[in-house]
Structure formats: C-alpha cells, structure tokens
Amino acid sequence: MEVSAPKILILYASYGEGHVQAARAIMDSLRRLGRCEVQLLDLMAESHPWLNGLTKFVYMQSFKTIPQLYGWVYNITRGMKAKSAFGHVLHSFGMRQLTLTLKKELPDLVIHTFPQLALPALRRKMEMNLPIVNVVTDFDLHGRWLHPDIDRYYVATEDIQQEAAQRGIPIERIIATGIPIHASFYNMSANEVPVQEQVIPSLQSETTTVLIMAGAYGVLSGILDICRQLSKLPQLRLLIVCGRNQQLKAEVDGLYADHPDIYTYGFVDFVPALMRASNLVITKPGGITLSESIASGLPILVFKPVPGQELNNALYLQQKGAARIARTTEELIQHCLDLISTPSLAEEMTQAIELLRKPHPADQIAEDILHQLVDKRPSVRTN
C-alpha cells in the first residue's frame, strides 16, 4: 500500500500581511522540496468572522490613534504563560472550526505563523498524534508564542532561541532559521528582469536610491513630509510603495507626477526587485519587511515605530547595528544624510546586517519539518 504525500496545515491570521506572507513562503518551500499537500487556514476569520473583523479594525486603529496603549498591553503581557487564565482565553478561539478541519483534512502536521494556539489542548482532547510547530515572525518573543506542548520552534535569531530556552522551552526544540520570506529575495526569478526594466529605474553609481515602504496598508505616518524634504536633496531617487492605501498613492502622484526621480507604486509583488534597485530602506519595522531588507543587504531606517512588537523589533536591530530609529522627520532626514555622505557608516550597517542574514529560512524550515517531523513517522493516511 503506497504511503501518500505528507499533508500539512498552516494556520495564520490576517492582522497585517506578515503572517500570511510567512505562511505562503513555507507553503512554496514544502511543495517544492517535499511535494507536500499544503492547506492554508485563516483560523480566526473562518471561526469567528465578526470578531475577526472587529479585532482587525481595533488592531489597525490602535496603531494610528492609541499606539501607546497598544504597546503597554503588548509589553505587560509579553511574559504571559500559555497555561495561565489569560493564556487559556487567548488560545481558546477557533476550537470548533479547527476540530472540523482536522477531522476533514487529517493533516500529518500543523504549522502556526500566528500565535493562536488552540491546537495543543485540542490535540490532547482528540488524542491525536499530531506534530505542531510554531514559526515566530518577529525579532521579539511574546509569551503568546510559547507553549510547552509545541514540538518545534523556528525563530529569527540565536538570541530569541536562547530567550525561549530561558523561558522554559527545551532548546533542542528551537532552531534559529530566520523568518521565512519569499524565495525571490535570494534568487532572482525569471520574470523579474522585464519588471525591473519596465517599472524600476536602473541603479546608478552617482545616485542614491531610497526605498520607502509604507506597509501593506500604507500606514507609515508622515510620508508626504518625508518626500517633501527628501525631494530637495541632490542625486537622490525615491521609490515609494504605498501598499493598499490608494489615497496616499494619489496624493504622492499628485504632488510628484512630474518629478524625474520620484517613483510611486501601490501594492506590488516585486518588492525583491525594488530592494535590489535600492541603497537603503525606510520602513515600518514589521518582522517580514525587516527580514526582506536584511536578505537584500539594505541599511534600514525605521520611522516612528509603534510601541509593541514593532518597536521591540526596531530596538533589537538598532542594538545589532543593522538599523537606525528616527522618531521625527528631521531625525530621519539626518540619518539619510549621514548614510549618504559617510559611506563607512552604511558599510558598517551592511556588515551588521550580514551577521543577521540567514540563507533561505523557508527552505530551512521545510527541510527540517520534512526530515524531523515527517520522514521519521509514517503518514496517518494511506491511499
């Protein structure tokens, strides 16, 4: 009787784009390396659509209107325990939908790219022999990710690996792979060259190209003021990615449509090409975008990081010398001028970034999953 291909379920959440991007990167690697059947499930959206919509709205608004409150809640709960009363509440959502999915799909393994950990309790209840892995998508470690019944952790850095171990997770379960991002950040795709020629200016030695990433929803604050001041600098080219914020793109287009060195984009699927065409990046400090910048070797300027995981991400990379934080437009412009006028500063950041760079994190995760958690146990399903 022939054993079927491994069937893997990836649970994510749509609070921003990072968690789903990580899920898709792992899915692509699993399919390519292991010929796996992979299914993605937005657990909160499927199980509690009304609550999912409300919490997404609150999440986005908190970034804009009450960032200090969001950061306070994040940091005060950072050390939470999975089996505390608060942990039981957080990890209780999605039980019914997950039960139905497990019974229908019979996966061989489940991956979390978002810390909604209903599965450990459910696995015990259903008496399933089902491996569970967590893929931590930040350079900071919140207690929501940590659960004693998770079989494997994939984290961004050795520092997080050590912290997780200090917080009670057996170190042999934790691997510092880096945060999974699309393979095209490491290997130029066949479709990238024509895209670059059509919509991205060629990199010129006498011109500094600055990539401004507003985030998937275009929520990076102060972009118009940043553009106004940077546009005055000589031999500077701006590539501005506005994400899904059509109003922001329209405003930038209206102001700089005739400017020869300002290029604007909406939500794009060629970020690797944009990063390859740039000398430095101004961005929100989400884990995925920071990892993409690191993979591309770009010095990182973080503007007005929101308290919580984003600020903690930024502080970590600044401590490592890979990023600089600016809390005002004037400070950001000064950082740009410093990096442009003093190449040795940019080179120091590039060297620091190289120390953080992990080769092909999604492939590393897929290979380890296939070797450690699939190859060593027979599939529960047979044809």
Question: Architecture of the largest domain, according to CATH?
Answer: 3-Layer(aba) Sandwich
Q: In terms of per-residue confidence, which ranges show pLDDT below 50 for 5 or more consecutive residues?
A: 377-383
Strand content: 5-15%
Oligomeric nature of the chains: single chain
Q: Output the radius of gyration.
A: 21 Å
Tally of helical runs = 17
Could you spell the SSE succession in H and E letters?
A: EHEHHHHHEHEEHEHEHEHEHEHEHEHHH
CATH topology of the largest domain: Rossmann fold
Question: What's the rounded overall pLDDT mean?
Answer: 88
Describe the protein's topology:
Layout: E1 7-12, H1 18-34, E2 37-42, H2 43-47, H3 49-65, H4 67-76, H5 85-90, H6 95-105, E3 109-112, H7 119-126, E4 132-135, E5 152-155, H8 158-166, E6 174-176, H9 192-199, E7 208-213, H10 223-230, E8 236-241, H11 246-256, E9 262-265, H12 271-276, E10 280-283, H13 287-295, E11 300-303, H14 309-319, E12 323-326, H15 329-341, H16 343-356, H17 361-374
